[in-house]
Amino acid sequence: MMSVTTLPESGAASALLPEPDTESGTRGAPQVPPKNLFEPAMLGRYRLPHRIAMAPLTRSRARQPGNVPAALNALYYRQRSSAAVIIAEATQISMQGQGYAWTPGIHSREQVEGWRLVTDAVHAAGGRIILQLWHVGRISHPALQPDGMLPVAPSAIKPTGMAFIENEKGEGEMVPFETPRALLAEEIPYLVQQYVRGAANAMEAGFDGVEVHGANGYLLDQFLSPRANRRNDRYGGPVENRARLLLEVVRAVSQVWGKDRVGTRLSPLGSFNDVGDDDPQSTFSYVVDKLSDFGLGYLHVINPAAAAVEKQTRPDPAALEMLALIRGKFHGPLMLAGGFNRDTAEAWLAHGKADVIAFGREFIANPDLPERFRIGAHINLPDPSTYYGGGAKGYTDYPTLAQERGEAPKPVVDESWR
Fold it and tell me: Which pTM value belongs to this model?
């Protein structure tokens, strides 16, 4: 395992790429089945049959009204139950926590019952599924908030970008963000309790664990970010204060589930949703060190070298240094997501850069992705126009290999859904 302060040498960085295909002169599928991807792994208390996880993917297909998971969602996750573990889509812990139209929640009785359909379906197919607990903070809009209230944030700083809402015609629409309301210090304990309630509801709904969403510029990441957090109380200023809410949430959720069934997601060096940090090394050195002390089931990191990995080019030295820091600081299972294909995932596992690799877009269009990786089969490309909202099209109608070969019935597209 690399030390925190040592950058990989040029040869080490190149080793994270797959070997070129000697016949074509380009990087291609290896001539033998991947070895490391299909080794068992421990994730907290769970023994995984391989190392190909499904990353959380917002798909905006919860039943309305009420943002309730339904039978269509259960089918979608059951189709993908051959993943080593599914990290279910980001799920708001309260009405206040919602930031996009039609995303599911885990704060009402109907939502708990809806998620039970999903977990029962995944378990019946032999899979495991973990729920990602989500509060978007300022990445919302009064149209999505209870009683049209302003979204909340660490500070009243308007983010750049647009919110995805449902308009008066029932259609998805992009509208500008508004300036959020800064949370009062006395509100923060109640905010922690929102996570506790979401965690307890997830247990009742039959999940195998929970993941605290501390990434991608949402509420907990906003508190971490000096660009979004200008507070002068015990939740702002030095990193010990900016990280306080994340650590309080993780501690409280771990008391509900047990530490070995809790994970946390981070996005070091990320700028999505208008966050940023001039000294990310200090921030994430502190955060990851503290998270490691909890003895969590796993840490889930959005790969800061994702763009380079996807293009199969040399990663930026700052990204490699951050990855080395995290690997050195966190003394538990590390899950990486972002930019991987079968070959690069195999290479990164072979060099000990992660314990599990999570795939997102690949699972959208390939419900049997592990089998396709195992035998080197073709990988279908997803249709981006169907990522968010809609029904079965682009959601449950992607075929498995068995369905492509005519060995199993093809999924039926029900356009009447929603």
Answer: 0.92
